[in-house]
Design goal:
This is Galactitol-specific PTS system IIA component. Pfam families: PTS_EIIA_2. The protein has 156 residues and is of the alpha/beta class. It is built from 6 helices and 7 strands; from the N terminus they run H-E-H-H-E-E-E-E-E-E-H-H-H. Strand 2 and strand 3 form a beta hairpin.
Length: 156
Protein backbone atom coordinates (compact mmCIF):
# COMPACT_ATOMS: atom_id res chain seq x y z
CA UNK A 1 0.00 0.00 0.00
CA UNK A 2 1.41 3.31 -0.97
CA UNK A 3 1.48 6.37 1.27
CA UNK A 4 -0.45 8.12 -1.51
CA UNK A 5 -3.35 5.70 -0.95
CA UNK A 6 -3.38 6.41 2.80
CA UNK A 7 -3.53 10.12 1.98
CA UNK A 8 -6.85 9.48 0.19
CA UNK A 9 -8.42 9.09 3.65
CA UNK A 10 -9.85 12.49 4.62
CA UNK A 11 -12.40 13.55 7.23
CA UNK A 12 -14.48 15.25 4.50
CA UNK A 13 -15.01 11.76 3.02
CA UNK A 14 -16.33 10.06 6.17
CA UNK A 15 -20.10 10.02 6.61
CA UNK A 16 -22.05 8.93 9.68
CA UNK A 17 -25.38 10.46 8.72
CA UNK A 18 -26.21 8.78 5.40
CA UNK A 19 -29.54 7.01 5.43
CA UNK A 20 -30.38 4.58 2.65
CA UNK A 21 -32.75 1.68 2.15
CA UNK A 22 -30.42 -0.09 -0.26
CA UNK A 23 -27.13 0.18 -2.12
CA UNK A 24 -28.64 2.26 -4.93
CA UNK A 25 -29.87 4.92 -2.48
CA UNK A 26 -26.47 4.87 -0.81
CA UNK A 27 -24.81 5.53 -4.18
CA UNK A 28 -27.22 8.42 -4.78
CA UNK A 29 -26.25 9.92 -1.41
CA UNK A 30 -22.55 9.46 -2.05
CA UNK A 31 -22.85 11.09 -5.45
CA UNK A 32 -24.65 14.07 -3.87
CA UNK A 33 -21.72 14.53 -1.48
CA UNK A 34 -18.69 13.56 -3.57
CA UNK A 35 -19.54 15.20 -6.91
CA UNK A 36 -19.60 18.79 -5.55
CA UNK A 37 -16.19 18.12 -3.98
CA UNK A 38 -14.78 17.29 -7.42
CA UNK A 39 -14.21 13.54 -7.03
CA UNK A 40 -16.70 12.09 -9.54
CA UNK A 41 -17.42 12.32 -13.24
CA UNK A 42 -20.99 12.35 -14.52
CA UNK A 43 -20.62 8.65 -15.42
CA UNK A 44 -19.89 7.52 -11.85
CA UNK A 45 -23.43 6.87 -10.63
CA UNK A 46 -24.46 4.61 -13.50
CA UNK A 47 -21.06 2.88 -13.54
CA UNK A 48 -20.94 2.02 -9.84
CA UNK A 49 -24.54 0.78 -9.89
CA UNK A 50 -23.85 -1.45 -12.90
CA UNK A 51 -20.62 -2.78 -11.42
CA UNK A 52 -22.31 -3.58 -8.11
CA UNK A 53 -25.06 -5.44 -9.96
CA UNK A 54 -22.56 -7.52 -11.93
CA UNK A 55 -19.85 -7.87 -9.28
CA UNK A 56 -21.38 -7.53 -5.79
CA UNK A 57 -19.13 -6.26 -3.01
CA UNK A 58 -20.80 -7.36 0.23
CA UNK A 59 -18.45 -9.19 2.59
CA UNK A 60 -19.52 -11.12 5.66
CA UNK A 61 -16.24 -11.14 7.57
CA UNK A 62 -15.93 -12.94 10.90
CA UNK A 63 -15.85 -9.60 12.75
CA UNK A 64 -18.16 -7.40 10.67
CA UNK A 65 -20.40 -7.21 7.65
CA UNK A 66 -19.05 -4.64 5.20
CA UNK A 67 -19.27 -3.61 1.55
CA UNK A 68 -16.48 -2.27 -0.64
CA UNK A 69 -18.10 -0.83 -3.77
CA UNK A 70 -15.90 0.67 -6.46
CA UNK A 71 -15.81 1.42 -10.16
CA UNK A 72 -13.26 1.93 -12.88
CA UNK A 73 -10.95 4.96 -12.61
CA UNK A 74 -12.33 6.37 -15.88
CA UNK A 75 -15.39 7.46 -13.85
CA UNK A 76 -13.36 9.49 -11.35
CA UNK A 77 -12.12 13.06 -11.49
CA UNK A 78 -9.57 12.41 -8.74
CA UNK A 79 -8.83 9.57 -6.32
CA UNK A 80 -10.51 9.14 -2.94
CA UNK A 81 -11.62 6.66 -0.29
CA UNK A 82 -15.05 7.40 1.16
CA UNK A 83 -16.20 5.68 4.35
CA UNK A 84 -19.85 5.43 5.31
CA UNK A 85 -21.06 4.19 8.68
CA UNK A 86 -24.79 4.28 7.93
CA UNK A 87 -27.46 4.87 10.56
CA UNK A 88 -28.76 1.37 9.88
CA UNK A 89 -27.18 -1.53 7.95
CA UNK A 90 -27.52 -1.51 4.17
CA UNK A 91 -28.12 -4.74 2.27
CA UNK A 92 -25.58 -5.70 -0.35
CA UNK A 93 -25.37 -8.87 -2.37
CA UNK A 94 -22.42 -11.05 -1.33
CA UNK A 95 -19.12 -10.86 -3.18
CA UNK A 96 -18.88 -13.82 -5.52
CA UNK A 97 -22.69 -14.07 -5.61
CA UNK A 98 -22.78 -16.90 -3.07
CA UNK A 99 -24.50 -16.80 0.30
CA UNK A 100 -26.94 -14.57 2.08
CA UNK A 101 -27.32 -10.83 1.66
CA UNK A 102 -24.80 -8.84 3.63
CA UNK A 103 -26.14 -6.28 6.12
CA UNK A 104 -23.26 -3.82 5.80
CA UNK A 105 -22.57 -1.77 8.91
CA UNK A 106 -19.67 -0.08 7.15
CA UNK A 107 -19.27 0.80 3.47
CA UNK A 108 -15.85 1.67 2.07
CA UNK A 109 -16.14 3.21 -1.39
CA UNK A 110 -12.82 2.96 -3.19
CA UNK A 111 -11.95 5.58 -5.76
CA UNK A 112 -8.37 4.49 -6.39
CA UNK A 113 -6.85 5.40 -9.74
CA UNK A 114 -3.40 3.77 -9.40
CA UNK A 115 -2.90 0.55 -11.40
CA UNK A 116 -3.39 -2.42 -9.09
CA UNK A 117 -4.36 -0.11 -6.24
CA UNK A 118 -7.91 -1.40 -5.79
CA UNK A 119 -6.80 -5.03 -5.44
CA UNK A 120 -4.07 -4.06 -3.00
CA UNK A 121 -6.53 -1.99 -0.95
CA UNK A 122 -9.10 -4.81 -0.91
CA UNK A 123 -6.45 -7.14 0.52
CA UNK A 124 -5.50 -4.61 3.20
CA UNK A 125 -9.15 -4.08 4.15
CA UNK A 126 -9.71 -7.82 4.42
CA UNK A 127 -6.78 -7.94 6.84
CA UNK A 128 -8.46 -5.35 9.05
CA UNK A 129 -11.84 -7.08 9.09
CA UNK A 130 -10.39 -10.53 9.72
CA UNK A 131 -8.80 -9.16 12.91
CA UNK A 132 -11.23 -8.77 15.80
CA UNK A 133 -9.40 -5.95 17.60
CA UNK A 134 -8.78 -3.88 14.45
CA UNK A 135 -12.35 -4.35 13.27
CA UNK A 136 -13.77 -3.39 16.67
CA UNK A 137 -11.59 -0.27 16.72
CA UNK A 138 -12.75 0.85 13.28
CA UNK A 139 -16.43 0.14 14.00
CA UNK A 140 -16.28 2.01 17.33
CA UNK A 141 -15.24 5.30 15.71
CA UNK A 142 -17.77 8.14 16.03
CA UNK A 143 -15.95 11.04 14.35
CA UNK A 144 -14.52 11.49 10.86
CA UNK A 145 -11.10 12.27 12.33
CA UNK A 146 -11.17 9.11 14.45
CA UNK A 147 -12.17 6.97 11.47
CA UNK A 148 -9.37 8.41 9.32
CA UNK A 149 -6.87 7.84 12.13
CA UNK A 150 -7.98 4.24 12.73
CA UNK A 151 -7.91 3.26 9.06
CA UNK A 152 -4.73 5.22 8.39
CA UNK A 153 -2.90 3.35 11.14
CA UNK A 154 -3.85 -0.03 9.72
CA UNK A 155 -3.37 0.77 6.05
CA UNK A 156 0.01 2.51 6.29
Amino acid sequence: MSQADVELLRPELVFFDLEANDAQELFDGLEDRLKPLGYLKDTWRAAIGEREKNYPTGLACPTAQIAIPHTDPVNLERPYIAIVKPKSPIKFQPMGGMGDEVEAKLVINLGIMRDGGQVEMLQKLMGIFMDEAKSANVLSQTTPEGMVSAFGGYLA
